[in-house]
Specification:
228 residues, alpha+beta, two-stranded antiparallel sheet, 2 strands, elongated
């Protein structure tokens, strides 16, 4: 579950949408305040000047530095309030969507993990059935060689072994398919075969049965602000 919430692409996209909507909301809130734009203008002139009648020329040199500050405030209360409310609702919706994506990804990862555990157990059962069928075939062949068994029994044992071997191949294919499905959810390399580490999966109680109603309502209000 930690790997799923850290590496899943859907969760990362949902988080990016939340950040984008949060930036849009902050931009709409800041639109209420005026825009202050400081600026500095500098001009330089150097050359030769003359009188109006053209009789005298003399060198000139000018440097002008003009600092300025402009304030722009275009206020449309209706549009600003609408944009703020709409952006806030979009932010809340994207936040709820992120939580939904996280929960759905965690649920899918958990289900796929248990599918992998089940496929591993089925493969182990199929392998054990193949081993027993091989032992039965060996015993049947000894009985046939000793003259106490029938050739039909040997053929029946061979057919049974072939059937169990086919079940084992199908179980191995299901195990690989379950591994690939989990690697896609965890955004890992599908060429790597995932194998469950624990030998036994313990049962976990997600919701206590003795949880009082006031705590249930508080939990619902905390994770569902639209219910308030």
């Amino acid at each position: 579950l930690r790997v799923a919430t850290a590496r899943n692409l859907d969760i990362q996209q949902a988080r990016q949408r939340v950040e984008a909507n949060r930036g849009r909301y902050e931009s709409n809130v800041e639109a209420v305040f005026p825009v202050i734009a400081p600026s500095i203008a500098y001009s330089h002139f150097q050359g030769v000047g003359q009188n109006a009648n053209g009789t005298l020329t003399f060198p000139v040199h000018f440097d002008n530095l003009v600092p300025a500050v402009s304030i722009q405030w275009i206020l449309n209360p209706g549009a600003i309030v609408y944009d703020i409310i709409a952006s806030k609702r979009r932010l809340e919706a994207s936040d709820q969507q992120e939580q939904s994506v996280v929960l759905e990804t965690a649920r899918a990862a958990a289900v796929q993990y248990y599918d992998l555990v089940l496929a591993q157990v089925r493969l182990a059962v199929a392998q054990e059935a193949v081993n027993e069928a091989q032992e039965l075939l060996r015993i049947t062949q000894l009985q046939v060689n000793a003259g106490t068994g029938l050739p039909a029994d040997e053929l029946r044992a061979q057919a049974s072994l072939a059937g169990f071997q086919q079940d084992m191949v199908l179980g191995l294919n299901n195990f690989y398919q379950a591994s690939i499905a989990l690697t896609l959810t965890l955004h890992l390399d599908p060429a790597v075969t995932l194998v469950p580490a624990p030998r036994q999966v313990n049962q976990t109680m997600l919701v206590r049965e003795n949880l009082p109603i006031d705590e249930l309502l508080a939990t619902a209000a905390r994770y569902r602000p639209d219910l308030n």
